[in-house]
Design goal:
The chain is of the alpha+beta class. The protein folds into 2 domains: about 170 residues, Uridine Diphospho-n-acetylenolpyruvylglucosamine Reductase, domain 3 (2-Layer Sandwich), CATH 3.30.465.10; about 140 residues. It is about 30% helix and about 25% strand.
């Protein structure tokens, strides 16, 4: 365990005095998510260690630079897990990066997102002040929940130092099924299954096959498996490949788009390969279409599009409405008045 709060604080003070922007980096596994902006690296990799872990209370508190694998190993030793199945994208992934990116894996529709499980945090604002928000129990949350605001903020509001998070017991049994379906039939089946009382922890479609992951008590999983049918897989390799984007679909240099859409959205008539996750609510699209066309496509379906990988010179996100821009800027300035942290990430001008 290593506490580098003092060293990090001095770096922030120096940056404020010298008007030098800082780029917060843990393991660097999710650097590709932000706009390339100016600044020197502020590394949290050495600021690590599990501060407290209470298996009976389902609460873990750790420093931001703690390797994500270390967190997961500690939980597994008590037969527990992170409920939002965060992607690593690298063996260097850190706890703070998992929270700051706000990314959740295939289990997200069935348990919740990163933000749903953040109980509290200690962070450093753009003045070098160390602030603490929330606590270690759900009922401590009152008023404006700043700790959860940090989930998905991409480090733009401040430097995460410590995070307390709620964990859950691991599932006693798991079953992975696969059925060959056309795109239309697959999406229809996804909508049907999502409305039923089934122990679902994953529902995805790769363009040829629908993948169903069940987890929970042995009797419930067995009954659901008999009800649904399909080929049983010996392992959950597909789900690991999907979460970590090591599935062959993600290979190549073609821009990868992440579209958050209503689950009832039909199969997209865009040229390019697609993978559907989250029971229809998340679409991964490999496409050379212009950002403007894809932003409009998502908006026409009451959804949202983001350039996830590739196409570095292109806009990554649609412009926010003026009122939303103003709100974001006010929040940013309240935490980081000199725009020291992660400037231009994820939006230019923030």
């Amino acid at each position: 365990m290593t506490d580098l709060t003092r060293e990090l604080q001095q770096t922030v003070w120096d940056a404020v005095i010298n008007r030098t922007p800082l780029i917060i980096r843990g393991g660097g596994s999710k650097d590709f998510l932000g706009q390339p902006g100016p600044g020197t690296i502020l590394s949290t990799a050495g600021h690590k260690g599990i501060i407290s872990y209470q298996p009976t209370e389902l609460v873990l508190t750790a420093r931001a630079g703690t390797p994500l694998t270390e967190i997961e190993m500690a939980l597994a030793s008590s037969n527990q897990m992170l409920p939002f199945e965060p992607p690593h994208f690298s063996e260097n992934a850190t706890f703070g990066g998992a929270v700051a990116s706000g990314l959740s894996g295939p289990i997200r529709p069935y348990t919740g997102s990163v933000r749903d499980f953040v109980l509290g945090c200690t962070m450093m604002n753009g003045k070098g002040q160390v602030l603490k928000f929330g606590g270690q129990v759900m009922k401590n949350v009152a008023g404006y929940d700043v700790s959860r605001l940090m989930a998905g903020a991409m480090g733009t509001l401040g430097l995460l130092l410590e995070i307390s998070i709620k964990v859950l017991p691991a599932y006693p049994d798991k079953l992975c099924l696969v059925q060959q379906k056309s795109p239309r039939d697959a999406l229809d089946l996804m909508r049907s299954l999502s409305s039923k009382n089934l122990p679902l922890t994953g529902l995805a479609y790769d363009g040829d096959n629908i993948h169903i992951r069940l987890a929970g008590p042995d009797a419930a999983v067995k009954a659901a498996g008999q009800q649904l049918g399909g080929d049983k897989l010996a392992n959950d390799d597909f789900w690991q490949l999907l979460r970590e984007q090591t599935h062959p679909f993600f290979d190549g240099r073609q821009p990868l788009w992440r579209l958050s859409l209503p689950p009832a959205t039909p199969w997209l008539a865009q040229a390019g390969k697609q993978i559907v996750d989250w029971g229809g609510g998340l679409r991964w699209l490999k496409s050379d279409d212009t950002p403007a066309d894809l932003f409009k496509l998502a908006a026409d379906h009451d959804g949202y599009a983001r350039l996830f990988r590739g196409g570095e010179s292109q806009p990554r996100m649609p412009l926010l409405p003026k009122a939303m821009q103003t709100l974001h800027q006010k929040i940013k300035l309240s935490f980081d008045p000199d725009a020291i942290f992660n400037r231009d990430s994820p939006y230019q001008g923030f």
